[in-house]
Amino acid sequence: MQPSRFTVALFLFLASATASTAQGKYDVFWGQYMASALIAETCKGVTTYSGHNAVSIGVARDGLREQRLLRILYYGNRENLRRLGHITLTMSGVSTDDPQKLCRYARKIARTDDGIGRFLRVN
């Protein structure tokens, strides 16, 4: 029997988050931002910040190092970053496989203090 998609996502998320506390904070941040980017790609009328604006948020709100965030933004593996976004969405109980549920979720959390919602805007 194959493990469920959620189980695999949870394992990958926990493995990456527990590898290093510092790395965990950056994984969480990029997972949240990439989740917002995936939502913006999927949902009409929903937008997200640019990568540079996201970096500013990470520095100001999360106390992350700007140079490290910029390095990941410019040189990070895009597939790994997208994977973090999918994992973060899965951990939030939504998926890009169900666009209606995803877009309802996005509209509910946009412009809130939610980790993903802080990056989202609804037009």
Please give the radius of gyration in angstroms.
14 Å
| Unreliable residue runs | 16-21
- How many extended strands? 2
Give me the strand/helix succession: HHEHHHHE
Spatial separation of the terminal alpha carbons: 44 Å
Our estimate of the beta-strand percent is under 5%
Shape, principal axes of CA atoms: globular
Mean pLDDT rating:
88
Number of DSSP helical runs? 6
Approximately how much helix is present in the residues? Answer: 55-70%
- Class by helix and strand content? mainly alpha
Biggest sheet character: 2 strands, antiparallel
What is the spatial order of strands in the main beta sheet?
A: 1-2
- Oligomeric status: single chain
Explain how this protein is built.
The protein is mostly helical and 123 residues long. Helices cover 68% and strands 5% of the residues. It has helices at 5-19, 21-42, 51-62, 66-75, 78-91, 99-109; strands at residues 46-48, 120-122. The protein has a two-stranded antiparallel sheet with strand order 1-2.
Summarize, please.
Keywords: Signal. The chain has 123 residues and is mostly helical. The protein has 6 helices and 2 strands.
Write out key terms for the chains shown.
globular, mainly alpha, 6 helices, 5% strand, 68% helix, 123 residues
What's the arrangement of secondary structure elements?
Blueprint: H1 5-19, H2 21-42, E1 46-48, H3 51-62, H4 66-75, H5 78-91, H6 99-109, E2 120-122
Antiparallel strand pairs: 1-2
Helix pairs in contact: 1-2, 1-5, 2-5, 3-4
